[in-house]
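re: ur question from yesterday

yeah so i grabbed the chain u mentioned. its 363 aa long if i counted rite. heres the sequnce exactly as i have it in my notes:
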Amino acid sequence: MQGYLLERSNGTICAMSEEVSPVRHGLARARSAYVTMDDVAREAGVSRALVSLVMRRSDKVSPQRREKVLAVAERLGYRPNAIARSLASHRTNTVGVLLNDLHNPFFAEIANGIEEHASDIGYRLLIITGGRRRRREQAMLEALLEYRTDGLILVSPRMAGREVAAAVGALPCVVIGRRLRDGGVDCVMTDEASGSHLAVEHLVELGHEHIVHVDGGAGAGAAPRRAGYVRAMAEAGLERTARVIAGDFTEEAGVAGAERLLRGGELPTAVFAANDLVALGLIDRLESDGVRIPADVSVVGYDNTFVAGLNHIRLTTVNQPRHEMGREALELLLERVGGRAERATRLHAPRLVVRSTTAPPRA
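ran it thru and got these structure tokens back, copy pasting raw so excuse formatting
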């Protein structure tokens, strides 16, 4: 018997008692800490080996005993110990994902592609962000390595290739959005320079000659997009009017780029932005100064994130298959986990998506 005090609604207190069974006492004890397989076996009156077979979905257990063990496990709140299981199998069924920037929907959409495929095949993700800072990326990569994941997916990292190769060593690793020449890292990317060429070609076909590029600074993919712009302008005979404004893959860089254009006097007739966020920041700042898009200035972005397709934006942009790239990266990673030794690169062709922010130049 065990006693306790009960306070009634009128403020009086009386002594009460209840009988606590060994089962209920054991349940309370088990719930006060992590419930183990031994707790389930003891409560169900079976061996630990039988509980293990049930948790591994073995067909060597009768339906009656399976139901009994599962009922007890549910009542106790038992969860399989993933750490112990990984020590036995040398697998954690966990993949670490390092994103460049959570603010950019491009990375969120890639992560969604990874997560959906991981969920389908019974894998879990540890997702972390480098916040567009190289040193933070290095620290976050080390943190992921400490969790002993089966492999890593790095989405547009700013770290140098040699730094990535040195950090991951022999651990399976796939990089999205960049081609790394160091180490045995697999890559999934689009032809960034070709994407820039599509953007400039579209603007030239509309009749534009004064086309400015606000670039992505040190961001992954910025250099080939910038090179593609310069080459496309030269091929169109417009190298004398080519102009690159240093930026970053952020809305703030788009705003800063627009302010430089506004201070410079005569505006260009078109701007090719390094990504959709840059394009949105640029459009917002230009329109706040009375510039009409696209009547006065046409704007093309890059990535084709979901915001580009919103009805009040309808941004002309270059498409990258974000969801497909995420799924493919996980498939490549698991091939490496399974023993594939040769290095692999998957290169996707970009595609221009024409919407409402581009038109022939003003008279």
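noticed a couple things. Residues 105-120 form the longest helix (16 residues). also The radius of gyration is 29 Å.
anyway ttyl
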